[in-house]
Write a structure and sequence with these properties.
Number of helices: 2
Strand content: over 45%
Largest sheet: 8 strands, antiparallel, barrel
Order of helices and strands: HHEEEEEEEEEE
Structural class: mainly beta
Number of domains: 1
């Protein structure tokens, strides 16, 4: 469960982390500027996250799904933004055999069937997260993404509801990286409650958390801060 929470914090800071990635790329080729100057930036963002993670087993086929509803009250640019991302992975347990020294030996391995990731920006009418973090919902949101196993674009429709389950959540995460070109520091915090979630996905992919053998969900508030320095001349 902690791993899922951490993923959600990182996803909620996607805009910032995208900035961090661009900074890292820039740092590999320092800009032309006066020697010994340093560029310093600090960004903050905050918002709410409703996240659900489930796992199903149907015979020899296994499916894992993650849906994140993210409402950024303030992005680094000072604007609000709401979006949903969906990750669905499916694989099969298959037997394989080989002949060694005239004898047949068999074993099992997991073979990927699908790895889908999709993303969609949301209008205010598409979702709801209550101010007290007691409930959240997505109403028939269309998400287009890509299946990296089959090399296909796919479109799904997501319906989701979250309701307060009662257990409090509070977690802090931090990350830092330094080299001769740049220094990055990231700090994130979430607080909220665990939740019961119902997820229905239809379209090019059909799966449901109602069939799950394991599920995990929560609704939280999140805050993130990122500070970076770019050294125009390697230190």
């Amino acid at each position: 469960m902690n791993n899922v929470k951490t993923v959600a914090v990182i996803v909620a800071a996607g805009i910032i982390l995208g900035l961090v990635s661009s900074v890292s790329s820039l740092a590999l080729a320092p800009a032309q500027a006066k020697p010994n100057t340093t560029h310093v930036e600090k960004y903050m963002t905050s918002g709410k996250i409703a996240s659900a993670h489930w796992f199903t087993e149907d015979g020899d086929t296994f499916t894992q799904g993650i849906v994140n509803l993210i409402v950024a009250a303030k992005t680094p640019e000072g604007t609000s933004e709401s979006f949903v991302d969906v990750n669905i992975e499916q694989y099969k347990l298959e037997e394989y055999c080989e002949i060694l020294n005239g004898e047949e030996y068999c074993d099992y391995e997991y073979t990927p069937v699908m790895t889908f990731f999709g993303y969609a920006e949301l209008d205010r009418s598409d979702f709801n997260i209550s101010s007290n973090l007691r409930s959240a919902s997505l109403d028939s949101v269309e998400v287009t993404g890509f299946d990296y196993v089959n090399g296909e674009e796919k479109t799904i429709t997501v319906d989701a509801t979250w309701s307060d389950e009662g257990s409090p959540i509070k977690q802090r995460n931090s990350y830092s990286e330094t080299n001769e070109y740049y220094k990055i520091f990231f700090k994130g915090m979430i607080s909220g409650r665990t939740a019961d979630a119902s997820i229905e996905i239809t379209g090019d992919i059909n799966t449901s958390s109602g069939d799950s053998d394991f599920s995990d969900a929560f609704i939280v508030k999140a805050k993130e801060v990122v500070l970076y320095k770019i050294y125009e001349e390697p230190i």
